[in-house]
Write a structure and sequence with these properties.
Shape: globular
Number of strands: 11
Radius of gyration: 17 Å
Distance between the termini: 26 Å
Number of helices: 6
Strand content: 15-25%
CATH architecture: 3-Layer(aba) Sandwich
Structural class: alpha/beta
Number of domains: 1
Strand order of the largest sheet: 1-3-2-6-11-9-10
Length: 253
């Protein structure tokens, strides 16, 4: 049974399968492209509002399928990462970015300290509290975050298909990479981002201090653009994760 310190606003954070049997907890920080009406789309044009700068396309569907496969809890942020990026600490410049890749974000330009603090309180703190509360309710939890990345970044094509990211604790990432070693997919460590890019905040905040096994998965978004490809990718990742967990736990015994 999951016990949270405060009531959950499901318009801010979605929490699924609170009766889960698995110790694995799936987190999707960039699950939604939703921008609350009062932010007036942050001044973005329609093209930008449909792009990867607003969210991680396909990531939630993959995370949802994986959570079902494991009978695991799933936690998802319900607001665009441009309003607040729940995979960034409040002091990070890109927590509420005024510029994302090639897109200017007028609604984030010149935010006052009060405005930033308001977003932290409204969007980040409930998410942080939910993740913390779920992990605290599970014996020996395993944290897995699920993301997607754009195939073309600053005009350059990315050949990596699946990224397996970690911070200082590489135990689960190592085992996951070993499980995926015979795959025909292009699977790489800490690509297309790594700890130096500030993308491992959730792992650092919620897993590293307590020594929980953890990994961050990045899937190129063109590979999960349809329901069929989302299902297939999620099933593949679930298989690798199952093998990785068995290997890691066996090594620890």
């Amino acid at each position: 049974m999951i016990h949270l310190d405060q009531p959950l606003d499901d318009t801010i954070v979605e929490l699924r399968n609170t009766q889960a049997s698995s110790p694995v907890v799936f987190v999707c920080e960039h699950a939604s492209a939703h921008i609350p009406p009062e932010f007036a789309n942050l001044g973005l044009r329609d093209e930008a509002l449909k792009s990867h700068v607003v969210w991680d396309p396909g990531a939630f569907a993959v995370a949802e399928r994986m959570a079902t496969a494991f009978d695991a809890v799933l936690i998802a942020a319900k607001t665009s990462r441009l309003v607040y990026d729940c995979n960034r600490p409040p002091h990070a410049p890109d927590a509420m970015p005024a510029h994302s890749e090639i897109v200017d974000v007028p609604g984030n330009t010149g935010l006052s300290a009060e405005q930033k603090a308001g977003r932290v309180e409204r969007f980040y703190e409930p998410f942080r509290s939910a993740v913390s509360g779920v992990l605290a309710s599970i014996d020996t939890p395993v944290l897995v975050t699920v993301h997607s990345f754009t195939p073309v970044y600053h005009g350059r094509r990315r050949d990596v298909e699946i990224g397996v990211l970690h911070d200082k604790d590489a135990r689960l990432a190592d085992a996951f990479l070993a499980a995926a070693a015979d795959s025909h997919s292009v699977v790489r460590r800490n690509e297309p981002y790594g700890p130096g890019d500030g993308v491992t905040h959730t792992l650092k905040e919620h897993a590293l201090p307590a020594g929980h096994l953890n990994v961050m998965l990045e899937v190129r978004s063109d590979l999960i653009a349809t329901n069929a490809s989302q299902v297939a990718t999620a099933d593949t990742l679930s298989g690798w994760l199952q093998t990785a967990l068995a290997t890691t736990r066996a090594t620890a015994c």
